[in-house]
Amino acid sequence: MNEKKKEPFFHIVKRDALPWYKSIGIRAGAIVLALILCAVVTTITTGTNPIQVYKSIFIGAFGTSRKAWITFQNIAILLLISLALTPAFKMRFWNIGGEGQVLIGGLAAAACMICLDDKLPNALVMVCMVIASIAAGAVWGFIPAFFKAKWNTNETLSTLMLNYIATQLVAFFIIVWEVPKGSGKIGIINQDSNIGWLPQIFGSKYLLSILVAVVITVFMYIYLNYSKQGYEISVVGESENTAKYVGIKVEKVIIRTMLLSGAVCGLVGLLLVGGINHTITTTIAGGQGFTAVLVSWMSKFNPLTMIFSSFLIVFMNRGASEISTNFGLNHSYSDILTGIILFFIIGCEFFITYKIQFLKKHKKEEQ
Amino acid sequence: METKTAAVSMKNVSKTFGTVIANDKVNLDIYKGEILALLGENGSGKTTLMNMLSGIYFPDEGQIFINGKEAVIKSPKDALSLGIGMVHQHFKLIDVLSATENIILGLEGKLNIKAASGKIEEICNKYGFEVNPKQKIYDMSVSQKQTVEIVKVLYRGADILILDEPTAVLTPQETERLFSVLRKMRDDGKAIIIITHKMHEVVSLSDRVAVLRDGKYIGSMATKDTTVTEMTNMMVGHAVTLNIERPDPVNPRPRIEVQGLTVRNEEGILKLKDVSFTANSGEILGIAGISGCGQKELLEAIAGLQVTESGTISYVEDDGTREMLIGKDPLRIAEMGVSLSFVPEDRLGMGLVGNMDLTDNMMLRSFRRGHTPFTNRKPPKQLATDVVKNLDVATPGITTPIRKLSGGNVQKVLVGREIASAPTVLLTAYAVRGLDINSSYTIYELINEQKKKGVAVIFVGEDLDVLLEISDRIMVLCGGQVSGIVDARKTDKNQVGMMMTSIGGSENHE
Questions:
Q1: What is the ipTM score, two decimals?
Q2: Domain B254-339+422-505 - what CATH class?
Q3: A39, A71, A236, B406: which has the fewest C-beta neighbours closer than 10 Å?
Q4: Test the B interface: residue of A242, A352, A358 with most B CBs within 10 Å
C-alpha cells in the first residue's frame, strides 16, 4: 500500500442533539474537573490542603443559619436581575444596563423613603416606593429601547452609558441627602421610624427577596414559554424579517420588552434599598448587573437553570470571602477559583455542541 | 477521442455528520477534457463530496487520487495547489474592489496589478470571457460576477473546476454564453464538474453524468447514451413523471389589481417603476426576470411589507368590491379578512424561524388566536403533524428545529403552512429554488391545487422552462419595469428571454 500520508490527527464534528442526561453528565464532569484543578492549583500555590479549602468554602456559604440565609438572599437578588435581563437577551437586545436600571430603581425607592417619611403613612410610602422604583427602572429600560426602535441605535452602548448616568445621579443625590452633612454618605434611612422599610415575612428579614425571586422565576418561565408576548419576543429575536412578515410590530415588542426588563431591575433596586440595606450607595448593585449577563447566558435563557447558575456563582463568592480570611489568602484568590470553574462550565458547552473525532486507523484495509 | 486520464479519482470516500451519512463509500472518476454533471436530489451528498474535493471538509474514510497520485486535501489551499478550484453558488467577492484585485486577493508574492491584469486578459481571450479587469464588483451584473469567480480559479492555475449550480441566477442568453466558455475550457483539457438541477442543461452541456442518491454512488454514464427520464429515475430511485399539469383557469376574475406601482428601496434606488397588472383568481401569473429586477419588492409590496412611493394595489372581492392593500401592514391586511399567503424567497430569513421547531413555526400565522394572553399550541401542533404527513416531510419529529431539515422539506413546511389558511391569493418567490426534482414537483402540484381552488397565484420563478409550463400568463420584468405580459401557452423561451434583457423584447441593443 501507499506510504501513510500525514493526515489531520483529529477533526471537529458537530453533534446531533444530545440526550439530556448526557449533556448534564458533561456539565457535571466539567464541574468535577474544575474542582480537581482548583484543588491542584491551591495545593501548589499555597500549600494548604484543598479539602480544607473546600470545607471552608462550604462553611462560608452555609456555616451558620445566618450565613445560609444571606447566601439565599444573594442568590435571589442575582437571580432576579438575571431574569430581568433574559427577555431582552431572548430578543437579541443586548441589555447590559442592568446595573443602572437597578440603581435608578433603588434611587427612586430611597427618594420616597427620604422625602415622604413625614408626609404619608408608612403603608402609602411603601406603595409609592414600589410604583416609583418599578417606573424608574422601566424608564431606564425604555430610553435605549426607544432609540433602538426608532433609529436603530446600538443598544449595547446606550444601555452601558445609562449605567454611568445612573451612578452619577445616585452620587449626586447622596450629596443632597447626606447625613450627617459632609460625610458623603446617607447612612441608614429612617433608622428610628423604619418608614419605608419593607415588611419582614414570617419574622425573617431575608425571606421577602427570596419569595419575590420565586414568584418572578415562575412568572418569567411562563411568560417566555407560554405567552403570546413571549412568543413574539422569540420571533423578533430570531428574525426581525419573519416577525414583520407575520405582522408583529417589531418596534412595539422592543419597547414593551425593555419596559419589562427595566421594571424588574427597578424592583430589585427596591428590594436592595427598602428591604435589605435601607440605604443607598453608588455600589449597591455591586456589579451584579453584569454578573447577571453571565448567569442568563450560561443558563441559555432558561429561568429554571438560572436558579442553579446563580446559586453556583453566589456560593463561590460567599465561600471565597471565607477562605480569604481563614487562610490569609488574598480575596483575589477566590476570583481565581471562580474563574477556573466558570472556564470549565462555559468551555464544556463546546463539547456539548461538538465532538472531537480522532482519526481511526482503518483496520479493514489491513486484512 | 484521445485517451483520457483520470484527473480525480475518489475511492470509497465516506463522510458522516453525527448520525447522518452524507457520503457512503463513494467512488467517482473525473477525466480531463470532460464535463461531468453531478446529479442527485437535495441531501444526496453532492455538495459534501465536492467540499471534500475542494478542501472544506476532510473525508472520514477513503482516498482521493489526483492525476493518479494519492492526495491529502486538508484545506482549500491544498486543493488549489493540486489545481482544484470551486465556484460556489454564493459568490465570494469583495464589492468595493475591482475584478483584478479580487482575483489576486490572498495570493502570495509581490503585488503587481499590471502584470495580473495582463494575465487575466490572456485567460479571458483564451476562453472568450468578457471581463473588464478594472471594473468594480458592485458595478457588475450577476453573470459578470460569476465570470470573475471563474477567472479567479483559472488564474490560480486550476485545471479541475467545480461549479455549484452556476446557472441558477443567469438568463438563458447568459447561460448559453457560460456554456460555450465551459466547452472551450473542456477542449483545452480541463476537467469540469457541474452541479445542476436543470436537466436540459445536463443534456446540452455534459459529456458524462454521475448520479448520487442518499449519499451513495449510483452510477455514471455517457450523456449521449441516456435520457432525462432514465437520469431522473436513477436520482429518485423510482419512476417519476416529469409533466407539470396546466389546467385551464376556471372562471377567472380579477383579484389583485396593481396600478402604476413605484417603489424605491432604502438607499433610494428605484426598484419598481410604474408597474401595472391584474392577477386573476384561478390563474397562475408567472413573473419572469433576471434576479433583482424588482420581483422581491413587487411581492413584498402586495404583502404589505414594502414601503411604496406611488401607485395602488387593490384587492377585488368576488362581488366586485375593492379594498386597498397599499399602506397596510400584514396584520391589517389579515384583519381586513383578506387571506393572503406569501412564500418568500428567503425561507429561513423571512417565512420561518430556523431555531424553532415545526409546531412553533406553524404558530407564526396563528399565535394571536384566542383571548387569553397565552398561546395555544394544540392547533399548530395538529397542523404540523398534518403537514408532515400529507406533504411527506422528512423530519425526525415535529419538535425538531426547522433549520435541521433539508431545503426541500423546509419549503414543504412553509408552503404547507401558507396554504393551510385557505388563501385567496398566493404569492410565491422562487418556490423551488434549491429543491430537487421530486420536491419541486410536489410544490408544483400544491400550487396547481391552489389554482384549481380558485386562488390567484403569483409565481415568481427563475427556470423559464418551468414558468412556461406552469403559468397561464407570464409578466416579464426588466429593471423594475413591466417588459410585457404574454400568454404562456403561446410564447417561447426565446421571446421571454429577450424581454428579460430589454423592455418589450426588441433585439436592437445587446
A1: 0.79
A2: alpha beta
A3: A39
A4: A242
Of A235, A238, A245, the CB nearest to B305: A245
Residues of A in contact with B375 (CB under 8 A): 226-228, 231
The model's pTM: 0.78
Do B254-339+422-505 and B6-236 have the same topology in CATH? yes
**Residues of chain A contacting B, Cβ within 8 Å:** 2, 5-8, 11, 13-16, 222, 226-229, 231-232, 234-235, 238-239, 241-242, 244-249, 357, 362
- Residue in this structure with the C-alpha cell 459578470, named with its chain if needed: B144
Q: Strand pairing of B473-478 and B283-288?
A: parallel
Domain spans of chain B, in order of start: 6-236, 254-339+422-505
On chain B, the residues whose CB falls within 8 A of the CB of A222 are: 374
pLDDT of residue A366: 39
pLDDT at site A359:
59
Extended strands (E) in A106-246:
none
- Tell me: cis bond preceding B247? Omega within 30 of 0 counts: no
The whole domain housing A75 covers 65-307
pLDDT tens-place string over residues B21-66: 888 888 888 888 899 999 887 778 888 888 888 888 888 888 888 8
* Distance separating alpha carbons of residues A260 and A134, to the nearest angstrom: 9
Instruction: Tell which CATH architecture fits domain B6-236.
Output: 3-Layer(aba) Sandwich (3.40)
How many domains does chain A divide into?
Answer: 1
Residue B496 binned pLDDT confidence (cut-offs 50, 70, 90): confident
Does residue A49 lie within any of the structural domains?
A: no
- The shortest C-alpha distance from B326 to chain A (Å) reads 15
Is A253 part of any domain?
yes
| CATH code (residue A110) | 1.10.3470
Higher local confidence (pLDDT), B5 or B45 = B45
- Per-residue pLDDT, averaged over B89-107, amounts to 85
Share of chain B above pLDDT 90, in %: 22
The residue that leads in pLDDT, A361 or B368, is B368
Which residues in chain A are contacts of B374 at CB distance < 8 A?
Answer: 222, 226-228
| Whole-number Cα distances in Å, B375 to A303, B175, B367, B413 | 19, 49, 6, 20
